[in-house]
């Protein structure tokens, strides 16, 4: 489903953020990407949702290759990839319902269908009771649930989470991890980048460790 073949990513001044990285992720897997700050975790996720393209090697996602994908095809691919971030990236002037609905409005989904899908996504992450609240009225954990609902509402085949618990207290972090587990159990692949290695013990799954742009350990699939 995702194949990363001998990928290098070089930023300015010949800085290798990733060097000769190869990795396969199958349908429905749960993978932790760990490693210290600056190791290349975010760069790896950005390559998967084709926010950036590799300088060497090839990234294949859902049949699209980084070598041949057309510019106009990238947004089409991204609709099927959910992405969540440490800083939530919610729209401050929209309430919870509107934030999630917006993800469907931009794809031209009919209004009645939007309502049905948004209410379901909010219920799935357990945040329905806050649907009229604005982001500033929510805790970090609640904001992350909204961003997860926004990612899920398009029914992605994979959810990419870049340090999703980085701005959340330990109790809230466990809740978010539980939610990601549940989402994975329902069939969506989850790739979670984190430098918080202690989180892994709550959910022992495949761990890929990156250091200085290279994969230094891959436990393989752990069911
Ligand atoms: N847009 C960029 N321009 C220049 N250097 C970058 C850019 N993005 C990342 N880097 C560098 O690449 C390395 C890996 O970054 P990143 O993937 O963000 O690491 P991580 O997410 O593991 O903390 C770091 O040294 C970082 O400074
Ligand atoms: Mg990062």
Description:
The chain contains six helices and ten strands, in the order βββαββαβαααβαβββ. The strands form two sheets. A six-stranded mixed sheet has the order 6-7-8-3-9-10, sandwiched between helices. With 223 residues, it is an alpha/beta fold.
What's the topology here?
Elements: E1 2-11, E2 15-25, E3 30-34, H1 41-48, E4 56-61, E5 64-65, H2 74-78, E6 81-85, H3 96-105, H4 111-124, H5 140-152, E7 158-162, H6 170-185, E8 189-194, E9 206-211, E10 214-218
The protein binds adenosine-5'-diphosphate (ADP) and magnesium ion.
The end-to-end distance, rounded to whole angstroms, is 18 Å
- CATH 2nd-level architecture: 3-Layer(aba) Sandwich
- Kindly provide the radius of gyration, computed on alpha-carbon positions and rounded to a whole number of angstroms: 17 Å
The first-level CATH class is given as Alpha Beta
Q: What's the overall average pLDDT, rounded?
A: 95
Number of helices: 6
Biggest sheet: strands side by side, in what order?
Answer: 6-7-8-3-9-10
Fourth CATH level, the homologous superfamily: P-loop containing nucleotide triphosphate hydrolases
Strand content: 25-35%
Short description:
Helices cover 30% and strands 27% of the residues. The protein is of the alpha/beta class.
Provide key terms for this protein.
globular, 4-stranded antiparallel β-sheet, 6 helices, binds adenosine-5'-diphosphate, 6-stranded mixed β-sheet, binds magnesium ion, 10 strands, Rossmann fold, 30% helix, 223 residues, 27% strand, alpha/beta
